[in-house]
Amino acid sequence: MNQTKPMLDDEAPQLQRALPDDAMVIVPVRNMVLFPGMILPISIGRERSINAAQYAVKAERPVGVLMQRNPEADDPAPNDLAAMGTVAAILRYVTTPDGSHHIICQGQQRFRVLAYLDGFDFMVARVERIVETAAEGDREIEARYVQLKERALDVLQLLPKVPQEMLQAVQDVDSPGMLADLVAAYVDIKPAEKQELLEEVNLRQRLDRVIDMLVHRIEVLNLSRDIDQRTKASIGQREREFLLRAQLKEIQKKLGEDGGDNAAELAELHKLIDEAGMPEEVAKQAEKELKRLERMSDSSAEYSMVRTYLDWLLEIPWKAPEPDAIDVAQARQVLDDDHFGLEQVKKRILEFLAVRKLKPGGHGPILCLVGPPGVGKTSLGQSIARALGRKFARVSLGGVHDEAEIRGHRRTYIGALPGNIIQALKKAGTRGCVMMLDEIDKLGTGVHGDPSSAMLEVLDPQQNNSFRDNYLAVPFDLSQVIFIATANMLDTIPGPLRDRMEVLHLAGYTQEEKREIARRYLVQRQLEETGLKPGQFALTDEALMSIIRHYTREAGVRNLERQIGAVCRHVAVRIAEGKIEAQTVDVPDLGDILGQPRFENEVALRTGMTGVATGLAWTPVGGDILFIEASRTPGSGRLILTGQLGDVMKESAQAALTLVKSRLLALKLEAGAFEKVDVHIHVPAGAVPKDGPSAGVAMFIALVSLFMDQPVRSQVAMTGEISLRGLVLPVGGIKEKVLAALAAGIKTVMLPARNRKDLEEVPEQARTQLEFIFLDDVEQALQGAIDMAPVEQPVP
């Protein structure tokens, strides 16, 4: 309990000399400002402060209370103290049993320090007392006084549990300066800001600053009160909902409709998790999420998110698939039944299945079927699944440009789902399915990541045994999935992704293969589509070959099936109208059904004249024939190239012209044959971009035919790159080019000699119908194309 200790004369500090009249005892304080008119208790613990207080009590003198600018200083120097403070009378000096000292001071007026005096046991300074002038008659001061009182009362009403005495004290203050000091003393601001108000001698400016602080404080208190009210209302609403739910559960129990905290549903989830066959890590994650679900209310937003996540974990096939019962002979029969031709591809697929049978646990290759549209890539995947007795799942990758489509979205996003790989496995219902990654060459790249990079993990047998989907956030074993990719071209597939796959090329079909495919599959399928019975419709072989030759020109058979479908629909209309009961469609009937032939024998139209040669080209949808036309006009020796040619093809034309010029004597041409003419090389179908070096031989033959005025042999096509030495270099796409030549009615094909080995990929039926001339240099090309005797190149 605090008690007053009387001060003895011998305990008072002894002065070395008396204090001057204008001097004052200084008591430094930390983080505290005393305003005039205010009563404030001050704890003093430093020896000099205790001496100062004891002397002031004994001598009945006031003290000067100054705030330390540096509160960390234990023995403050004059520079550490503020320049202005408050003259205070000590009302009471109190010591406590623990030895601490306290003084209760009442502020009287402001003072300013003039100089500090030495030679005392405590701080002493000469000071100037500041007398506040009266404000009577100053209307601006009075207006501010009224405004300040209103704002002070507003603040007190916003504060919780304000004593009534405080409100009465503000009401009773009749001095503007005293009101400003009273408000500044009790307002919740920093000590440094209070010191600035104490040092503000100008009464008008002091009132303005205190009013501004009160306005700011009122805004803060209003916002705080609004937030508090909203929070209480929200908590109250939740409490009401909790009580209502508790009452509802009690009512359900009484009625025998106990929801029982969804006990039955949660028990069922526990059972499903135990039976799902999850790996240990996944099972722990599922149990963790289930415990979270048990603690949630089923009306909360997060409840549905966690429940959906658990549903995905339970619906994904975690159990290991049954071993494959592979019968290679049966698989061969399935492939032959489903597909005609494609012998090399079937051979590789059977090898794949045989290895899978002998080593079930091994990591088989990822097959990538590459070929033009309509050659049966997707249906081959279905046949593989049927041969293995596995489920078939298809994932379309064309146009996918978001990595989340492969890896899934994180659960933090609204509407998050697993990626297409996990979704396809859920649909298949087994980890041992055959998954077709369709159109893998058409993966895009956008602002949401690179899907082709995400596919690297999927297609790597060393990594996909722990594939991590962003939504599931647990590893999933994809090693038992047989992945088969399809693509139209390899150029757009990134190198690292292409390196993970074994590429099987599917070239276009020959006309005879298309006829067999149409007989075995297409006609029957269109009969079923149109509702015709076999006895109501027949298509002769001649009509079928006419459709192939004159109404379609493609590597696959999609357009062929559409044309057969058009013929079937025409017959179906006539039967439905009752005009006929059955019809056999022959060649003369095709004109009325399909219109005039769409494709003509362009070789016959464009050859047989000088300066025209037939080349062979490769495109992403198969091979095609390419015509090279050369002409000359009076000019200055320029070379003009048209037909939307790429840089490589333009360079081939320049090389061909240079090679012709270098052989003037051998070709028996005049030395000035090129000086006064412009040579124009044009490749028709100018709207289609063309590039590549394989037209070099055709360009050379076209130029020689032009300047020697001898036409190129009819029904001869050629391909090959040329060098300035006259060598014929190998090119790619031989199988597609040869099949395109056969389809266009070409009889003789000239190929680079170094491409002879590529003929093994060409179907034997196509090889027997064509004559091949293999070229080592352009002299052999001249002899085969223009029927010239070989000439010797003069030695320079």
What is the topology?
Blueprint (H helix, E strand, L loop, with lengths): L22 E7 L9 E6 L2 H13 L3 E5 L16 E12 L5 E17 L5 E8 L8 H20 L5 H9 L3 H11 L4 H8 L4 H53 L7 H13 L4 H16 L5 H15 L12 H11 L4 H16 L7 E5 L6 H12 L3 E5 L7 H4 L12 H9 L5 E5 L12 H8 L8 E2 L6 E2 L5 E6 L7 H5 L1 E5 L5 H20 L6 E3 L1 H10 L7 H19 L6 E3 L1 H8 L7 H5 L5 E8 L2 E13 L4 E4 L4 H15 L15 E6 L13 H13 L7 E3 L2 E2 L5 E2 L4 H10 L4 E5 L11 H6 L1 E5 L2 H8 L11
Parallel strand pairs: 1-3, 7-12, 7-13, 8-9, 9-12, 14-15, 16-20, 18-19, 20-23, 23-24
Antiparallel strand pairs: 1-6, 2-5, 3-4, 4-5, 5-6, 10-11, 16-17, 17-19, 21-22
Helix pairs in contact: 2-3, 2-4, 2-6, 4-6, 7-8, 8-9, 10-11, 10-12, 17-18, 17-19, 18-20, 22-23, 23-26
Number of helices: 26
As for the number of domains, it is 5
Percent range for helical residues? 40-55%
Shape: elongated
The biggest sheet, with number of strands, parallel, antiparallel or mixed sense and barrel status, is: 7 strands, mixed
Low-confidence stretches: 1-16
Sheet with the most strands: spatial strand order: 18-19-17-16-20-23-24
User: Could you tell me the strand content as a percent range?
Assistant: 15-25%
- What is the count of β-strands? 24
* Oligomeric form: single chain
- In the CATH classification, which architecture of the largest domain applies? 2-Layer Sandwich
- The CATH class assignment of the largest domain is Alpha Beta
